[in-house]
Design a protein that fits this description.
Layout: E1 13-18, E2 23-26, E3 31-36, E4 39-45, H1 48-53, E5 61-62, H2 70-80, E6 84-89, E7 96-102, E8 119-122, E9 127-131, E10 134-138, E11 144-148, H3 151-159, E12 164-165, H4 166-170, H5 178-186, E13 190-191, H6 215-223, H7 270-277, H8 292-303, E14 309-311, E15 321-323, E16 337-343, E17 352-357, E18 362-366, H9 370-384, E19 392-399, H10 401-404, H11 411-433, E20 436-440, H12 445-452, E21 459-468
Antiparallel strand pairs: 1-5, 1-6, 2-3, 3-4, 6-7, 7-11, 8-12, 8-13, 9-10, 10-11, 14-15, 16-17, 16-19, 17-18, 19-21, 20-21
The protein binds flavin mononucleotide.
Length: 480
């Protein structure tokens, strides 16, 4: 039947549906379980309404956020396990405009009310790419990814390289609907340039701290850590079936070799011996925790502020700046790294979360949720494949703008290099003190943000190292 062009298209709605491979089961008593990856997880007891609509979860159950009562509660619980996605469509069985894939556990789509004169523009952090046979719209700022299923959506996004009002967009012949705009605004894929905002490509987007971020740096930060994406990550050998591992030792170049062994005359120095002695320790002695005095010694040696210096404005391209050097080198003397200690067991220091004030050489308690503290310690235990959580987990957090205020293009890469430098400094101090240490490859930036209340792009977790008294160590605690 030909469509009636004079009739407005029906309002698009969200439908929550189970991810492929997930099914729901309901017991006679109303208990709902999800079956996936060969296991069953119980999600609690729900009323008759949920029972009646359980089958709809395969294709999509209408989802209107908070107003949905039990349905939205079940969706929320399923979402915590990453088991649902949301399709935006005009009818329950009609074609999808987009499919929303949550990237963060506590994300639920919301449609922000928009009036016709509201101007919208595409965030400079948003991008479209091919993923398999799909075209996806993403942003490091967004808590969700959008699979684009209708060409009208892609066309509208291209239109939004310049600010346009809802009314202007609605006038275009293939306008996909205000509901889509509302979803994308909620996800910070779109933003509302304020009145009088200039046409600069680098508008603050409602957050002044974003001005100092390059696109690729913010993307790298969110995709190379845990917490803000749902992509597979970690040591999963994804390509082991495609290619052999290159040899551990590089084959020699064919040119003439100058033998350095003949030059080994002096015995190795104490420092060179320390370098050789350093090893990673993953199992810590539960009966003999590290002491507060040892933590103080470690921090003093590796991370304490040594001096305070001021570089004057040179009248050319270097504005005045202040630096606070520490025992390790830092590009541009940025010294953007701060240390936070998640303490499980430390003799003389209560279990808790602390900031190391590198100027005062003091630990400052940060009140935080006990479950988050446990989650952070358990993540580190998992990363090390260790029998127990570390006694102390040190998180390095970067005050990013200390670096990006000066450097463009490689600011985030510089931060990660600094993490490596500080990591080795902590490793070597620990080796000298004969306490155990183990670097942790990846941390959860969202968990750190929750624990500190600091936005992930303002002062964010970039590295971690576990420390404690190793089980093999015979050294007496410093305080003895
Ligand atoms: C940046 C970095 C990340 C690491 N991440 C982990 C990790 O997540 N889990 C772990 O058990 N070890 C981790 N390690 C430790 C390495 O596995 C270890 O350094 C390596 O196996 C060499 O052993 P060694 O440190 O005892 O000499 C990491 C080391 C570095 C430098």
């Amino acid at each position: 039947m030909p469509s009636d062009a004079s009739q407005p298209a029906p309002r698009a709605r969200l439908f929550a549906r189970l991810n492929p491979g997930v099914t729901l089961e309901r017991s006679a008593a109303g208990g709902v379980s999800a079956l996936f990856d060969g296991r069953a997880v119980a999600f609690g007891t729900f009323g008759a309404d949920v029972a009646e609509r359980a089958a709809d979860f395969e294709t999509g159950v209408a989802f209107d956020g908070e107003r949905d009562g039990e349905i939205s509660e079940l969706v929320r619980r399923l979402a915590l396990y990453g088991l649902v996605e949301y399709r935006l469509a005009r009818t329950p069985s009609g074609p999808d405009l987009i499919v929303v894939e949550p990237q963060m556990r506590d994300y639920a789509p919301r449609m922000i009310e928009l009036d016709e004169d509201c101007a919208l523009a595409l965030s400079r952090f948003a991008y479209i790419r091919r993923r398999g046979a799909d075209v996806v719209l993403e942003s490091p700022r967004a808590c969700a990814l959008f699979r684009l299923c209708d060409p009208s959506v892609t066309a509208m996004i291209a239109h939004l390289s310049q600010a346009r009002t809802v009314k202007e967009l609605r006038d275009s012949s293939d306008f996909p609907g205000v509901e889509l705009l509302a979803l994308l605004l909620d996800s910070q894929i779109l933003f509302t340039p304020g009145p009088g905002a200039d046409k600069a490509l680098r508008a603050a987007e409602g957050d002044d701290e974003l001005v100092l971020w390059d696109f690729h740096d913010l993307l790298f930060h969110t995709r190379s850590t845990n917490g803000r994406h749902a992509n597979p990550s970690g040591g999963i050998y994804a390509h082991a079936h495609l290619a052999a591992l290159p040899p551990a030792i590089r084959p020699s170049w064919p040119g003439p070799a100058i033998d350095l062994k003949t030059l080994e005359t002096a015995p190795p120095s104490d420092f060179a011996a320390l370098l050789r002695r350093r090893r990673s320790t993953r199992a810590f002695d539960e009966r003999r925790p590290i002491t507060l005095a040892e933590v103080a010694w470690l921090l003093d040696g590796a991370a304490r502020i040594i001096s305070r210096e001021r570089a004057p404005d040179d009248g050319q391209d270097e504005p005045e700046s202040e630096t606070a050097p520490r025992p390790y080198p830092s590009g541009g003397a940025s010294y953007e790294l701060e240390l936070y200690l998640a303490v499980d067991r430390c003799d003389g220091l209560a279990r808790g979360f602390y900031h190391y004030d590198a100027k005062q050489h003091a630990l400052v308690l940060i009140e935080t949720n006990a479950q988050w503290l446990t989650a952070m310690l358990e993540d580190a235990q998992f990363a090390m494949g260790a029998p127990a959580v570390p006694q102390v987990l040190v998180t390095m957090a970067a005050r990013f703008s200390r670096v990006s205020w000066k450097y463009s293009g490689f600011a985030y890469a510089l931060v990660l290099k600094h993490v490596g430098v500080l990591m080795q400094t902590l490793y070597l101090m620990a080796a000298e003190m004969e306490i155990g240490a183990c670097a942790i490859g990846v941390g959860d930036i969202d968990l750190f943000a929750k624990m500190t209340g600091l936005a992930f792009h303002v002062e964010g977790s970039v590295g971690q190292i576990a420390i404690g008294r190793g089980v093999q160590s015979d050294s007496p605690p410093l305080a003895d």
